[in-house]
Amino acid sequence: MTATELGQALRRWRDRVPPQTAGLPAGGHRRAAGLRREELALLAGISVDYVTRLEQGRAANPSGQVVEALARALRLSGDERAHLFRLAGLAPPGPETVPRYLTPSVQRMLDRLVDTPVGVTDAAMTLLVANSMYAALMGDPSGRRGFERNGVWRNFMGAPTRVRHTLQETRAFEAGMVSELRTTAARYPADRQLRRLIAELRAGSARFAELWDAGVVGRLEASRKTIEHPQVGLLTLDCDLLRVEGNDLHILVYSAEPGTEAAEKLELISVLGTQALVE
Questions:
Q1: What confidence tens digit (pLDDT) does each residue in 121-145 have?
Q2: Which of 151, 180, 181, 263 is geometrically suited to a Cys-Cys bond with 220, CB 3.0 to 4.6 A?
Q3: How far is CA 262 from the centre of its chain?
Q4: What residues contact residue 199 under an 8 Å CB cut-off, 6+ apart?
């Protein structure tokens, strides 16, 4: 496979994705019905220059993380995703590595839940994609790279968060995250990225190391979360964790009971988030 073949495939797949299906405005003069390079770069979380160099054959060896992000942004099928990995000179992820593939059905569901904060993570709790309402509620994750996108890493390494826990809630949440990660590590023993994440957490967080060495096992459960939004203040929401068993994805859905103050604040966040995007 040559760099030219990789570039041609990216351009072909980019041309077939209507911007409105990716949550982008379709207005203005467009030479093609598909995504512009800058739109693909935005969706994949990489630079426009890098997309250009890939398409022109001036960059031929993207990382697996970049290829995965491009596959999600381009909404590739399973076979197309595997082909993209091969074009990039990489082996498609096998059954012993954490799946990071967003299925078309999950993507369609995400597209329809535009008024609800939704994020999708892999089994290691790394955020794969989040809708605009999630970004408005929890803070825009688009600038995060590598382990900065992992919920366990952010929690134990002291990254900023809008979630406010009591001490008891913090302890239970930490134990749940470590339990979930241990179960995932046992299920995907060949995943090097997961092993590196665990090693960094054990080295960088005494609390994580304590829980890990204690051998806690189990699954992270759904909960209610109190979030401190910079513009609307505190609101407490239900956070449901839905599991896509076949692809081992976690879908985080935030909601409020209709007619409550939290529901009103969530609606206001929707307006504020939309205005911010327009600006």
A1: 999 999 998 998 999 999 999 888 8
A2: 180
A3: 25
A4: none
Hey, CA dihedral for 132, 134, 138, 143, is it positive or negative?
A: negative
CA 172 from chain centre, in angstroms, equals: 23
In angstroms, the CA 67 to CA 75 distance is 12
pTM of the model: 0.79
The set of residues, in sequence order, having a beta carbon less than 8 Å from that of 195 and lying 6+ positions away, is: 185
Question: Which phi-psi region, left, alpha or beta, contains residue 215 (left: φ > 0; alpha: ψ -120 to 50)?
Answer: left
Three-state DSSP at 40 gives: helix
Cα–Cα distance, 72 to 231 (Å, whole number): 31
Contact 127, 150 (CB under 8 A): yes
> Would you say 7 and 54 are in contact if contact means Cβ atoms under 8 Å apart?
yes
Count CB neighbours of 47 within 10 A. 11
Six token digits for residue 274 = 């939309």
| Separation in Å, CA 58 to CA 61, 81, 260 | 10, 21, 55
